[in-house]
Amino acid sequence: MSYQITITKKGQITIPIEIRKILKLEVGKKLDIEFERKKKEIKIKSAPDILDLAGAFKPKKIINAVKVRELMSRKYKPR
To answer: pLDDT digit string (tens) for 37-71?
Structure first.
C-alpha cells in the first residue's frame, strides 16, 4: 500500500483514513517516528499504550478491591 501525501507549511502531514482505521489511530493517540539517516527514510509506528496491555498479565493472587482500599486507608494517611 502506497500513498502520496503533502507536507504543510507547519511541517505537518495527514495520515490517510484507511491507515488510521487499520492502526486504530484516534485523536490524541501517540506515535513513534524513527529516522534512518543513511537510507533517508522515516518510519512511523503506533506508540504502545498502557491500556493495550489490559488483560495481558494474570495476577498471582486475586485480591478483593474493597479489602485493598480498606488496607490502604489504614496504612496511608491523607495529606
So the answer is: 999 999 988 888 777 777 778 878 888 889 888 88
- Which residues lie below 8 Å from residue 44, measured CB to CB, with a gap of 6+? 15, 31, 32, 33, 34
Q: Rounded to whole angstroms, how far apart are CA atoms 15 and 51? A: 23
Q: Please give the model's pTM, rounded to 2 decimal places.
A: 0.54
SS3 44: strand
Q: How many Cβ atoms sit within 10 Å of the Cβ of residue 18?
A: 10
Contact 42, 34 (CB under 8 A): yes
